[in-house]
Amino acid sequence: MILLSHIKRTLNKTAATALYLTGITQLLISSRLKQKLIVLMYHRVIPKKDIPGCPSHPGIIVSREAFARHMAFVGQRLHPVSITDLAQSVENRTPLKDKSCLVTFDDGWKDNYDHAFPILKEFNIPAVIFIPTDFVGRSTGFWQEKLFMLLMDLHEAMDSAGNNEHFLDKLPFEKDIRRIMEGDSSEIKDRAFSFISGIKNKSRKERDDLIWALQNKLGQTPGDSRPSDHRAFLDWEEIKTMEKQNVSFGSHGKSHAILTAVPEEEVFDEVKASRQKMHVQLGAPPLALAYPNGDCNSLVQKQVEKADYKLAFTTFPGLFAVSDDPLLIPRINIHEDMTGSLPLFAGKLARLW
Ligand SMILES: [Zn+2]
Asked: How far is the CA of 43 from the centre of ligand 1 (A)?
């Protein structure tokens, strides 16, 4: 599995470099982005040296070094637009300029301020960050990061203890946890991340029960934040500072709940309450929302419209023209594995893979 994906990556890299050096990638970008917008979706931006210790899924991380290369490319080769430009084009039905590009970030990680913001300023690229308002200023990540760290702690505890059985006995998802712990140690992170992705759609209670049970086994207090933890999410001061300098903010719900998995009245509360909170904090309501995990359906869309958002972003890959549905704007997910080099990044923009 790992060997196959390694071969695929090497082939992609070789093909990407050849297409980039011959100018084919740039030609494809120009032809595919005629009067179209490409929306880039980032999450975390972290110095390359810190990536191995990061508890977030690799699919949401880009290195600071790669991000700087991306923004240099966007600034030189594309036409960067702000969320306000986009809302105006949609409202007035004015065609988008060729090679329009909007840079977006989901979740409002603090590293957006520390690492992405200086680069955005350097290249004068506007951006929009979608924040789940309950998480502003929080020190720990989402349940995914918490669970990942607990699984790593469990592995360490089992390694140093003589008798392992009592750690696994009667844990929720016992079979899965056993499989994660008992396989090859060098691949434990991959197994943990794929387990975590697989339980995304389980109920909040089921996930909380697992986190609680692991904390209990490890003798940790609920809500424990380790001394080494830095604040995970942006606070309002950082948000206000960025807002003054070309970075806009949109809603990512209130609690980052997957909107297709909660009752309709809760959907409205998520989108409405987060909008009100942002209005109070920032003096104006946000124009846009990004569906948490990209999940939406017609009911969710109706609530988003009712809450008066002008634009809403999914995670479906694709390009956008002003005649398309502004509450279903597609985005291209950008992460380190597939965009670590400029030819790979440009190939992704050309929609080669
Ligand atoms: Zn998110």
From this structure: 8
Do both 329 and 193 map to the same domain? no
pTM above 0.85, yes or no: yes
Amino acid at 235: D
Task: Compute, in angstroms, the gap from residue 107 CA to the centroid of ligand 1.
Answer: 5
The residues near 104 (Cβ < 8 Å, ≥ 6 apart) are 39, 40, 41, 42, 127, 128, 129, 130, 290, 313, 331
Query: What separation in Å is there between the alpha carbon of 109 and the centre of ligand 1?
Result: 10
CA–centroid distance, residue 195 to ligand 1 (Å)? 18
pLDDT along the chain (353 residues), means of 10: 64 85 94 96 97 93 97 97 97 96 98 98 98 95 94 90 78 93 88 94 90 92 59 96 98 95 92 98 98 95 96 97 97 89 92 78
Instruction: Kindly list the distances between the CA atom of residue 161 and the CA atoms of 155, 168, 185, 213, 214, in Å, as whole numbers in the listed order.
Output: 10, 13, 16, 18, 16
Q: How many domains does the chain have?
A: 2
- Say how far apart CA 329 and CA 253 lie, in whole Å: 17
Q: Is residue 293 part of a domain?
A: yes
Which among 309, 353, 321, 311 has a CA at the least distance from the CA of 334? Answer: 353
Helix runs in the chain, H state only: 2-21, 24-32, 64-77, 83-92, 111, 117-123, 143-160, 165-168, 174-182, 188-198, 204-218, 236-243, 264-282, 298-306, 336-339, 342-349
Do 153 and 11 share a domain, yes or no?
no
